[in-house]
Amino acid sequence: MVEQTDKSAEARQAWMGVLARAPQDALMALWDGLQLNPTYEWLRAPEIGGVMVRGRTGGTGAPFNLGEMTVTRCSLVLEDGTVGHGYVQGRSRDKARMAALVDALMQTGSADMVRAKVIDPLTMQMQAAKTARAAKAAATKVEFFTMVRGEDQ
Q: Under a CB-based contact definition with an 8 Å cutoff, are residues 103 and 126 in contact?
């Protein structure tokens, strides 16, 4: 039983990460294509605030405060009692609401449809954008080398 809970927690973490990082226009377009209009009530209406971002040198060093970041969060409950949360970077109440709705629906019987029509396309779009950025960066890579002169030996 614990193993199943861990897997679902990891899966939820993955889709919430996709929703948080997704471009707003892409998320909204995919949501509109889903043509769902679930009834919900707010547990926490979208609110904008700030969080302190912390970093570690080399990923393992001592933590340090990197700076502040604006986030929008909200929580809602569907008619069936399923709770969804949305945490997104920036000041978009609409994106936070969409993220919370998708999170809630991913915990219901609609999960397969929502994954196929929202989560998977977002994941592919974001991976394509990451690959394009990497290819563009690789095209500007400069190789440095040292030539050995015969008389210096």
A: no
- The first and second tokens of residue 74, run together, are 């909200």
CA-wise closest residue to 130 among 50, 22, 15: 22
List the domain boundaries for the chain: 23-137
Which phi and psi (to 5°) does residue 9 adopt?
A: -65, -40
**DSSP secondary-structure letter at 147?**
P
Token pair belonging to 132: 């394009």
Residue 99 Cα to chain centre, angstroms: 9
pLDDT of residue 4: 42
With 60 as the cut, is the pLDDT of residue 110 above it? yes
The Cα 117–Cα 34 span in angstroms is 7
Distance, in Å, from the CA atom of 87 to the CA atom of 76, rounded to the nearest integer, reads 12
- Whether this prediction's pTM lies above 0.85 is answered by no
Measured at the CA of 10, the angle between CA 7 and CA 37, to 5 degrees, comes to 100
Residue range 10-21, pLDDT digits in tens:
999 999 999 999
Spatial CA neighbour of 26 closest among 119, 101, 131: 119
Per-residue model confidence as pLDDT tens digits over 113-141: 999 999 999 999 999 888 888 888 777 87
- Please state, in angstroms and rounded to a whole number, the distance separating the CA atoms of residues 112 and 128: 22
